[in-house]
Specification:
By secondary structure, the chain is of the alpha/beta class. The chain contains eight helices and seven strands, in the order E-H-E-E-H-E-H-E-H-H-E-H-H-H-E. Helix 3 packs parallel to helix 5. Bound molecules: nicotinamide-adenine-dinucleotide.
């Protein structure tokens, strides 16, 4: 489905990111991977760096374009989670969450849009969340706010850049079985396997999402099958909405 396409994936070393990269390559895409460390990831180009570094983000689309000989798809997948209400949120939490979840995809989109427009268009998929992207959830005030911001930015950019042949959409996953979720359980003293199993019972489909369940929807949004979708927020929740 992606024969001849060139894609940049951020957060490529993470749970969902690894699945996106594997699936894109299996379907013929050439992929540039971005994460703090990209060693050991099979890909056509490696662009490691810190998304908190603004100049790295600004330069990433052009670097991917140069490494791959073009750029058709960007998946802004990297993210961090901060837990707790506002009163337990530090300045450092703010800088980290706003930096990775909002500023990085903002900078990457801002740099990529003119490049894609000049070469006939492209597709960008951002990662919001059911938590914030669709409705606020309890005890994750900062995380929800960042995901609300990227959801709104996606809707705005989807409208503003459709005329340039650039489709910009976002997925809104509910809970996914990745290091992000599992490390949270471990930090709170729960056995991650048992906690994931228990959490699965709260989902109408009977289990929380695996990374592949989210990656498949991202690939759909990046593909020509979604050619009429611009600015959409696609909830992927197994039947379990936040609110
Ligand atoms: N896991 C869930 O339950 C869930 C639910 C909804 C949305 N999401 C979103 O899905 C996306 C992927 O999450 P995941 O569950 O695969 O998490 P993950 O922690 O497995 O992967 C996130 C990746 O982002 C990278 N990253 C974080 N900060 C970075 C930085 N400063 N510079 C470069 N790379 C950085 C990490 O190194 C990691 O590889 C995130 O945007 C997350 O918010 C996850």
């Amino acid at each position: 489905m992606f024969e001849g396409k060139r894609a940049l994936v951020t957060g490529a070393a993470g749970g969902i990111g690894a699945s996106i990269v594997t699936k894109l390559r299996a379907q013929g895409a050439r992929v540039a991977v971005a994460d703090r460390v990209t060693d050991g990831i099979e890909a056509e180009a490696h662009l490691p760096g810190d998304l908190l570094d603004g100049s790295y983000c600004d330069a990433l689309p052009a670097a991917a374009q140069e490494a791959l000989g073009g750029l058709d798809i960007i998946i802004n997948n990297a993210g961090v989670i901060t837990r707790g209400p506002v009163t337990e949120t530090s300045d450092a939490d703010w800088d980290l969450s706003m930096g990775v979840n909002v500023q990085a995809p903002f900078r990457i989109c801002r740099a990529a849009i003119p490049l894609m427009a000049a070469t006939g268009g492209g597709a960008i998929v951002n990662t919001a969340s059911c938590w914030g992207g669709k409705a606020p959830g309890p005890n994750h005030a900062l995380y929800c706010m960042t995901k609300a911001a990227i959801a709104h930015l996606t809707e705005c950019m989807g409208m503003d850049h459709a005329h340039q042949g650039i489709r910009i959409n976002a997925v809104c996953p509910n809970e996914v079985n990745t290091p992000m979720l599992r490390s949270g359980f471990a930090k709170r003293g729960f056995d991650p396997d048992k906690a994931v199993e228990e959490l699965g019972k709260t989902v109408p489909l009977g289990r929380i999402a695996e990374p592949e369940d989210i990656a498949d929807v991202m690939l759909f949004l990046a593909s020509d099958a979604a050619r009429y979708m611009c600015g959409a927020l696609v909830e992927v929740n197994g039947g379990k909405p936040v609110a």
